[in-house]
Each structure stands twice: as C-alpha cells, then as structure tokens.
Write a structure and sequence with these properties.
By secondary structure, the chain is α/β, with parallel strands linked by helices. It folds into two domains: 147 residues, 3-Layer(aba) Sandwich (Rossmann fold), CATH 3.40.50; 112 residues, 3-Layer(aba) Sandwich (Rossmann fold), CATH 3.40.50. Helix content is 44%, strand content 18%. The strands form two sheets. Strands 4-3-1-2-9-10 form a six-stranded parallel β-sheet, sandwiched between helices. A four-stranded parallel β-sheet has the order 6-5-7-8, sandwiched between helices. The longest helix has 17 residues. The two termini are 27 Å apart. The relative contact order is 0.21. The protein binds D-glutamic acid. D-glutamic acid binds next to helix 3.
C-alpha cells in the first residue's frame, strides 16, 4: 500500500482516535460525505486513552490536532469520546479550524430517542468519570435520568478484534445487567469503539432498547457543518496515519467496516 503524500491531495477532514474506534466514525463519514478526503490518525502507540488523566489526554489530543492541522486539515473531528469529554472544551476555542467531538451529537440523539426518560450510557472510565454525558443530556432536559457505567475491559477486547467472542459477551452481560434492571429505554454507546460490538450489545439488550451510536450522530453533525460552508470535496480518499504499527488495524477496517484505505503510514507524534 502506498504511503501518504500531502502535496497531491485536497484539504482533508482530519479525524483522530486512540486506535481503531474512530474508524466507526470514518465509516459513517464515508456514508454521509462520499466525496470528502479523510486523513485519519490512530494513536496506536498510546491506546487506550480511557484510563488516563485529563492532562495527558489533552496533551495527546493537542499534539495530534497540531499534526492534522500541519497536514492541511480543514476541520478536526475528535472521533473519541474520551478526548471529546476531557480535551475538546479546552482545545476547540484555540484552533483556527472547526473542531467537533462526538459527545454533544450523541447526547442530543439520546434526548431525542428516549420515551421513558431513562437513559443509560456506557464509556471508558475517563468519559464516565467526567460526567460529561450526564451534564450534556441534563443541560438539554434536566428531567431525564442518566445511569452511566464505565466498561474498561471493552476497548482492549475490541482492539484484539474479539467482537463476537464468548469472553466479550460475558463481559458485556456483566456491565449491562445492572443498567438493564433500572429500566432504561435508550443506551448511548459512549465510546467510538463500541459500535463494533453492536450485534453483541443488541443480543443482550433485546429490541426494546434504542442504541445511540455516537459515530453515526457525529457524522450527521459534520455533514451539516460542511453544508454550512467548509466543503470543498474533490474526490474520495482515506489516508491513515498510525503512531505505531498495528497488525489488526487493516483487517478490522477492511473486513468489519468495509473501508477502502488509499494509504497507510506510521508517524510518530509527541516526544
Ligand atoms: N474510542 C475512544 C473513546 O471513544 C477511546 C477508547 C480508549 O482509548 O480507551 O473513548
């Protein structure tokens, strides 16, 4: 596969995540904006972000955003709930291009979806600890009840490609059971890795619970932002930068998400 060549390409939408999770956002962006060029950075050298402090996640996010900007990104999509919760509020005002996270679009979709007023949220320890989802949901409607549970074992299982594995199903059951007994009717997949487990989550939750996918809702928000002015697509392209080589990355991108990758390079970020 060829490596990435900046000069020959139109300004991309810059997208990043700690690892493969942000590819679920890329897949939705591809569907919503088939002509855009996307430059994706997966911080595979430092995944997972979910157990790290706000200072560390903000530093990583700044380093990556600077790199995407230096590659000509016309906007930055933070395809990571952890970075959206911990870093976007500080970083977004400081960047000369729009920076959009996954959290607000997911929270708004959950508020719209619930009928019973009881919403569940699953995410990394850092995302749940920040209470960013509860705050975003309750700022839209203070009467809604939010039950949030951290699921720290899921990202490593997903990075290993164990989507349909008995171990993953057992872990999911253990995380979801207490939430299901509280009578939620809407479950926010508050980590961009989790849509890769949608099938297993659906089996455990049954059909009566609406699954809110932050990837899908972020793509809808990017689409309306571009429609409002910054679109200049000239042809589809997906260039991928990883901060360390990752064996499973291509397999998951191509097989599970059906993404066509035009170039893949390893690039170091930070010190
Ligand atoms: N996919 C990310 C998120 O949405 C990061 C997970 C991690 O690195 O722990 O939170």
């Amino acid at each position: 596969m060829p490596s990435f060549n900046k000069s020959s390409s139109p300004p991309p939408i810059g997208v990043f995540d700690s690892g493969i999770g942000g590819l679920t956002v890329v897949a939705e962006l591809r569907r919503a904006l088939p002509l855009e060029r996307i430059l994706y950075l997966g911080d595979t050298a430092r995944v997972p972000y979910g157990g790290k402090s706000a200072e560390t996640v903000t530093r990583y996010s700044r380093e990556i955003s600077d790199l995407l900007l230096s590659e000509g990104a016309k906007m930055i999509v933070v395809a990571c709930n952890t970075a959206s919760a911990l870093a976007v509020p500080t970083l977004a005002p400081a960047y000369p291009v729009p920076m959009i996270g996954v959290l607000e679009p997911g929270a708004a979709a959950a508020v719209k979806a619930t009928r019973s007023g009881r919403i569940g949220v699953i995410g990394t320890r850092a995302t749940i600890g920040s209470e960013a989802y509860s705050k975003a949901i309750n700022s839209l409607n203070p009467d809604l009840s939010v039950t949030a549970i951290a699921c720290p074992l899921l990202v490593p299982l997903i990075e290993e490609g164990l989507f349909d594995d008995e171990v993953t199903k057992t872990v999911l059951q253990r995380y979801l059971d207490p939430m299901l007994s509280q009578g939620i009717d809407t479950l926010v997949l508050g980590c961009t890795h989790y849509p890769l487990l949608k099938k297993a989550i659906r089996t455990i939750c049954g059909d009566g619970i609406q699954l809110v996918d932050s990837a899908e809702n972020c793509a809808i928000a990017v689409n309306s932002l571009l429609a409002a002015g910054s679109g200049n697509a000239r042809g589809p392209r997906l260039d991928i930068l990883l901060t360390d080589s990752s064996e499973g990355f291509l397999r998951i991108a191509e097989k599970s998400l059906d993404l066509k990758i035009d170039s893949l390079s390893v690039r170091s970020v930070g010190n």
